[in-house]
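Design review, sub-item: ligand-bound model
Attendees: FS, YL, KQ
YL presented the inputs for the NPW complex:
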Amino acid sequence: MEAKYTANLPQVAYSAQQVQQYEEQAAKNSGTSLSNLMLRAGESLFSLFENDLVSAQHILLLAGKGNNAGDAYVLARLLYQTGRAVTVYSLCDTTLLTGDALQAYQAAYQAKVDIVTKRPCLDSYHVIVDGVFGTGFRGELPEQIQKLFSECEKVPANKLSIDIPSGVNGTTSVVAKGAFKADITMTFIALKQGLLTGKAKAHCGQLVYTSLGVADAFEQLAQPSATYMDHESLFSRLPSRSVDCYKNICGHVLVVGGNKGMAGAIRLAAEAALRAGAGLVSVATHPDNVACVLQGRYELMVHGIEDVQQLSVLMSKADVMVIGPGLGQDEWAQALFSQSTQFAKQVVCDADGLNLLAQTKKRYCCAVLTPHMGEAKRLLGVKSGVDEANRFELAAHLAKAYDANIVLKGPGTLIADESRININRSGCAAMASAGMGDILSGIIGALIAQGMKPFAAANLAVYIHGLAAQIAAKEGEKGLLASDLFMHIRRLLG
Ligand SMILES: NC(=O)C1=CN([C@@H]2O[C@H](COP(=O)(O)OP(=O)(O)OC[C@H]3O[C@@H](n4cnc5c(N)ncnc54)[C@H](OP(=O)(O)O)[C@@H]3O)[C@@H](O)[C@H]2O)[C@@H](O)CC1
Ligand SMILES: [K+]
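KQ shared the predicted structure:
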């Protein structure tokens, strides 16, 4: 049977609310109905069993009371009719079912699918299918359902989520306590932004997509809430080097940081800027660190900074400043930070640069800020009214408040400016290693110095960084060193 889904995900994403709002109209405009979409959803799920889960013969489906359960009942019937052993465990009294879900239930019941309301033993199933909640999920998971999902995690069955893992919010990416953890999630109609970032990404497992035949009509009705740019569109913005270019026209990056005992961070950022193609890289660091930053990387111009006038001189020569790696927060750091706010060109601010920015309420004239969630919350301050768990709100709010591009790190890094958000595709668990952030800020600085616009540079840098980590981590994610990325960054940039 031909696969009715794809792992090649679209380049635009929407909120789960938009899908709910426009799915009916999109179905009508495509000459079909919602009940037909439910049949198509069930068929697409069934084709996954015919293609990727062929050996699965014993299947348990968990069903709620909404249309997500409707999809599960359609799938259950199709699986049963092809001779598989199928049980649907309904988590609600089936008399509560209405509309399309009720019809799908009745069809399954009439086809003699085993439908139970008492919890079966989970041990013997090859696949457990989650059809409990989809786009209609709100708030917290009832405790009993949390317990059930936790039991599911303990058994070896493959876990498949229908549309959205139950307990994940497809708009905000917020994951409710005890949410279902899938190995595969098949999502329908449009890519939901909430599945692509933060903890939600881990709950989805591999994400596959099917349009149910209404994507064109849907895209006519709804504006994407985020982009999800692929390799080609990101790399298409990278300026190429002409044969007659020379180091002085490939951008001069000044990297500021590396307080006592933190030479490694500034060295990684500086080397990353070189590896990402900056023509010249100057380093402003603590005088104690000059020799060790320079050691083995003689292409760097390393300066020990004793007073801020020295920094001013370096600032006057640079095209882009990267500040923060290993900077610290002591008097030396505060003086450098304060001076750095006079820089009238592009700044990339990371690590303690962000903490000083949050404390001092100073602003850069144009900046890319690269916080992780903790730094983002500090930048936000108290009483902001923003839902701190909602990565999209957090990134959008920071972009406005700091008039900056925001790179909100973490799985599915968000890159935001005042008018748009892109969700990064690359990345792996190895990204949680020391020094990874320092390297990222160096790459962003180098790409801007070579003439890329900050938003495009931040997007490409995050992508390259994640991809380099993925390639480098092929032999195991633990124990990977941040500096292992350098060779891959070089190759990726061609
Ligand atoms: N429309 C169609 O025909 C098509 C729809 N499709 C499929 O339908 C899905 C959307 O269906 P849906 O809108 O019915 O919502 P769904 O996610 O099943 O659950 C809603 C139910 O959950 C309940 N509930 C919510 N939160 C809760 C909580 N915290 N704790 C407890 N209960 C909670 C809520 O109860 P309520 O609060 O309203 O009483 C309500 O009963 C979509 O993801 C896709 O899979 C596709 O097949 C295409 C065609
Ligand atoms: K689900």
